[in-house]
Amino acid sequence: MKKSRIEFEKQMVEQMILLYCKGHKHAVSAPCAECSELASYTKNKLNSCKFAETKQYCSKCTVHCYRPDMKSKIKTVMSYSGPRMLLYHPVVAIKHFFS
Ligand SMILES: [Zn+2]
Fold it and tell me: What is the spatial distance between Cα 6 and Cα 20, in angstroms, rounded to a whole number?
């Protein structure tokens, strides 16, 4: 259960980054190099997150473990893909935003 939550969040982040990359036509086959770097960075952070077992989602986390440039990138991705996730994955997105 604890593990699956992190797995779930990793999956969400990956999909959001993919959506963002496709939406901005970064590369012919998404994700582009920059976006896959962001995705693996984010997944690494999730893997090593101290709050993995109890924490809220990273957007609400009190420990700002992201590098500033990565943080601003992921924020851009979230604000782009967040609302769109509701269209593509209504159940998943709703679960995410209200948990
Ligand atoms: Zn991209």
Answer: 21
Per-residue pLDDT tens digits for 72-94: 999 899 899 988 877 766 655 55
| C-beta separation of 63 from 50 below 8 A | yes
Q: Rounded CA gap, 11 and 13, in Å? A: 5
Task: Give the burial class of 18: count Cβ atoms within 10 A of its Cβ; 0-12 exposed, 13-18 middle, 19 or more buried.
Answer: middle
d(CA 82, CA 89): 10
What is d(CA 33, CA 99) in angstroms, rounded to the nearest whole number? 31
Domain that holds residue 55: 2-98
Q: Ligand 1 centroid vs 53 CA: distance in angstroms?
A: 30
Report the domain count for the chain. Answer: 1
Whether the upstream peptide bond of residue 31 has omega within 30° of 0, thus cis, is yes
Distance (angstroms) between ligand 1 centre and the Cα of 17 equals 8
